[in-house]
Design brief:
The protein folds into 2 domains: 4-167, Spore Coat Polysaccharide Biosynthesis Protein SpsA, Chain A; 172-253, no CATH class. It is built from 7 helices and 12 strands. It has helices at residues 17-23, 41-45, 60-67, 87-98, 172-190, 199-216, 223-253; strands at 4-10, 29-34, 52-54, 75-78, 83-85, 105-116, 119-121, 130-136, 140-142, 151-153, 156-159, 164-167.
């Protein structure tokens, strides 16, 4: 079987990191990419691996692109600290890599089961959530984007049957803070491709996001968490364009 390095990025993840590490113990090597955690994260990590590298966090894609070439093995399994590889997915990965070197597939999509506010989310636009997390380091690289960058693969991309578990909620305050931070990064990404800002950006797009996630994507079937997701999606779009407007005002003043 091709050998594999599991990579886990961390920053103050003492609540989640043990389960993530336990789920990738089958890997030949575990690398943790830490952004100078100040809690017990690294104490827990050292129970599983001594391969710890540290770098100030700029954005997710930059951090991962810096870390990936430092892995020993060609095949990479990248797992966030709030994710967990199920036994079924573990077995599928092992079976897939037994003959992978003789194939031209260089990466694999993995679907995710998302949990939010203590509930599994089955609708709300999250039902088809997937990410490329199993890939060859010599053939793949993350997009140069500040938010939601995906792998650019030089070759064919397969699809795994089993899913990652993703525990995305750590409290409402942290969720709002994350949305605000991502909105600022997205504003910078959107600056060049967004024309003059108008009521379309501040009113219609947020309203459409709410309707899409709650009604069209059937978020109402997820109950209160589904309604909350729809409201947060709407808010994230509104605050993105508000931050873009402020960014442009600042540039104009200069």
């Amino acid at each position: 079987m091709s050998k594999i390095t599991a990579i886990i990025p961390t920053f103050n993840e003492e609540e989640n990191i043990r389960e993530a590490l336990e789920s990738v113990k089958f890997a030949d090597e575990i690398m943790v990419v830490d952004s100078f955690s100040t809690d017990r994260t690294l104490d827990i990590v050292r129970e599983y691996t001594s391969f710890i590298i540290q770098r100030e966090y700029e954005n997710s894609a930059s951090q991962k692109n810096w870390a990936i070439p430092q892995a020993t093995h060609e095949w990479i399994l990248l797992v966030d600290a709030d994710e967990k590889v199920t036994p079924e997915l573990r077995d599928e990965i092992i079976e897939t890599l037994k003959n992978q070197d003789s194939q031209d597939v260089v990466a694999h999509w993995i679907y995710r089961t998302n949990f939010f506010m203590g509930k599994q989310i089955n609708y709300s636009g999250w039902q088809n959530d997937k990410v490329i997390r199993l890939f060859r380091k010599s053939k793949c690289r993350y997009q140069e984007k500040r938010v939601h960058a995906e792998i650019i693969a030089d070759g064919k991309v397969g699809v795994m049957k089993n899913k990652l578990l993703h525990y995305t909620f750590k409290g409402m305050d942290e969720t709002i803070n994350k949305i605000n931070k991502y909105a600022e990064w997205k504003a910078l990404d959107y600056d060049k491709k967004t024309g003059r800002l108008s009521p379309y950006h501040f009113v219609l797009k947020p309203m459409w996001a709410f309707v899409k996630h709650l009604i069209i994507k059937q978020g109402f079937r997820d109950g209160v968490p589904g309604f909350t997701i729809a409201k947060l999606q709407s808010y994230s779009i509104f605050i993105r364009y508000t931050k873009l407007w402020l960014f442009r005002q600042k540039k104009h003043i200069k």
